[in-house]
Give the backbone structure.
Amino acid sequence: MPAPDLVTAELTLTGRITTASNATFLGSIGDTAVVYKPIRGEKPLWDFPDGFLAHREVAAYLVSEVLGWNIVPRTWLRDGPFGEGMVQLWQETDADQSAVDLVAADEVPEAGWKQVLEGQDESGRIVALVHEDTPVLRRMAVFDVVANNADRKGDHILAVADGHRYGVDHGLTFHSDHKLRTVLWGWIGDELTADELEGVGRVSEGLRGVLGRHLAELLTAEEVSSLTARCAALRATGRFPGPRGEMSAVPWPLF
């Protein structure tokens, strides 16, 4: 039996994610599990006044595809039970893996992890925010710089059984002003690898062609121009940037 057309076949809702700040539903298209975020369920944001969060989610997928690193699960716009919205393929996570964690400050692993910051938990214990030191997570950090991701929480990184890491929840991306807030600060100042620079180069090239035309339908002209400038700056420095400005460098809550 052929697979259903993911754009036109019936989208059936199976549940709702109540912890999400905007209306977010679990659903299925035939046997394919998906996440559905209708535009009409979006809450207005003073610092992201233009366009729709769903459009930014799709833009993030398109940029991920051009980078070539399979960071964002397949994401598209389509009609659903509550009107047009973003639909994304559901990803099963491995409960025994975690790409980002809070550990006691004196128990930070010596190898394979990067420490981002220290703080106190609700019981007064000194804890450290850490994340994996892996090529796949480095690529996600590069993606976040390119996309100007303002909300890379720990739980927005999905750890799957084969070791791959997916990034989700990209509604707060592509602002024309600097908005980078992320838990992935472990490589500040490190040189980008040839693979990472080539990926950014593919985005720069794509913005002059098909990618640029598609993003023009989802983002403002100023946002696309800022994306072009971020890619150029990242290629020129060849290094992971650090926080700048007076705003918080990490999202809150962290998870």
Q: What stands out?
A: Residues 100-130 form one domain. The radius of gyration is 18 Å. Residues 221-237 form the longest helix (17 residues).
